[in-house]
């Protein structure tokens, strides 16, 4: 706790320009090497800016109240009402006061607009958890459901409330998704591309980086084959082609694009910005490069910019796995050093990974 308080104090001194040149240089180096610190700096700067804007607006309101109190408007109206020519004299005598009052009014309006605009901008970060509704299925899907036995999550007669995407981290049933997808869940099920559903439990939550690790606990689950992909630890560059597989509807949907920025919303260094069209339900889906390496987890999009999505970097998936006690994992999670997807075209890559990507259904 003490270290956190000291860090907050250093961040504030840094933003207010109170650090010496040597201290500033050292702290900026720390920001580069520690994304968590950089994230705190960005958040604290927004807080200080908002506080300053509020203070400026409050000060303007006080000045306007004072100026208004010094003007006896009733006496002026009564004195000059019968004589329109007096209005001209009143303007000449009091034009300075009127000008100041008008300036205060304009600045106040501008400040209020600025605060509202900034609030709106910060509200454009939209997580991609899907709210599931009872939508009428297509005729083909209805025919398939009539010809196949119904598959329903045990113990749930009602439809799931929220949905998202997750993907396998181990062959024995550990999955990765976003924390916001499973937040406030009473129970969670996952469904594979064949329609088989399994109950899962949450074994790790990280609200700060929006990551959750799930474990399939259903007795009917059979271990998967060796994972066809690996997590890429190193960052990738702008312009690299990427793709994701997710469940914005009941069938898996492919999204393709490229890395448009090495940082996410508001300069967040824990994320990439990618030019991929995503929709509610894509949250928690894997982000892969052309070689089939997982480089991140789809988490949100900019709802006022077409095709601007955000993905948490794969580094934080590894940190989440390392935070889970080894005895809980059963055995050490080891990803293949050789990527089986490398060299395959996109269609073949998807054929190999689709069995490892799941639809997540949240009940609460």
TrEMBL record:
The chain crosses the membrane at residues 97-115. One of its GO terms (molecular function) is serine-type endopeptidase activity. It holds the Pfam family Trypsin_2. The keyword Membrane applies. Keywords: Membrane, Transmembrane, Transmembrane helix. GO terms for biological process: proteolysis. This is Trypsin-like peptidase domain-containing protein.
């Amino acid at each position: 706790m003490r270290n956190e308080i000291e860090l907050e104090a250093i961040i504030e001194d840094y933003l207010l320009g109170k650090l010496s040149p040597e201290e500033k240089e050292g702290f900026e180096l720390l920001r580069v090497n520690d994304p968590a610190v950089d994230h705190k700096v960005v958040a604290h700067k927004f807080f200080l800016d908002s506080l300053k804007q509020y203070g400026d607006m409050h000060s303007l309101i006080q000045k306007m109240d004072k100026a208004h109190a010094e003007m006896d408007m009733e006496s002026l109206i009564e004195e000059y009402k019968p004589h329109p020519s007096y209005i001209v004299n009143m303007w000449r005598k009091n034009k300075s006061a009127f000008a100041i009052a008008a300036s205060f009014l304009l600045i106040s309006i501008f400040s209020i607009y600025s605060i509202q605009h900034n609030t709106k901008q910060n509200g454009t970060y939209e997580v991609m958890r899907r709210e599931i509704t009872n939508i009428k299925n297509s005729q083909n899907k209805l025919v398939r459901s009539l010809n196949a036995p119904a598959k329903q999550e045990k113990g749930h007669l009602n439809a799931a409330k929220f949905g998202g995407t997750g993907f396998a981290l181990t062959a024995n049933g550990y999955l990765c998704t976003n924390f916001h997808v499973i937040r406030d869940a009473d129970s969670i099920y996952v469904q594979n591309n064949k329609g088989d559903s399994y109950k899962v439990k949450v074994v790790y939550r990280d609200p700060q980086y929006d990551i959750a690790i799930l474990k399939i606990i259903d007795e009917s689950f059979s271990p998967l084959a060796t994972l066809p992909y690996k997590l890429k630890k190193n960052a990738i560059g702008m312009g690299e082609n990427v793709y994701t597989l997710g469940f914005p509807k009941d069938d898996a949907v492919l999204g393709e694009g490229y890395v448009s920025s090495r940082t996410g919303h508001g300069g967040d260094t824990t994320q990439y910005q990618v030019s991929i069209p995503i929709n509610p339900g894509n949250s928690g889906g894997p982000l892969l490069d052309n070689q089939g390496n997982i480089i991140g987890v789809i988490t949100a999009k900019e709802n006022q910019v077409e095709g601007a999505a955000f993905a948490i970097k794969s580094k934080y998936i590894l940190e989440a796995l390392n935070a889970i006690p080894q005895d809980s994992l059963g055995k050490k999670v080891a990803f293949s050093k050789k990527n089986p997807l490398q060299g395959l075209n996109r269609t073949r890559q998807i054929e190999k990974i689709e069995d490892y990507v799941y639809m997540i259904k949240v009940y609460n």
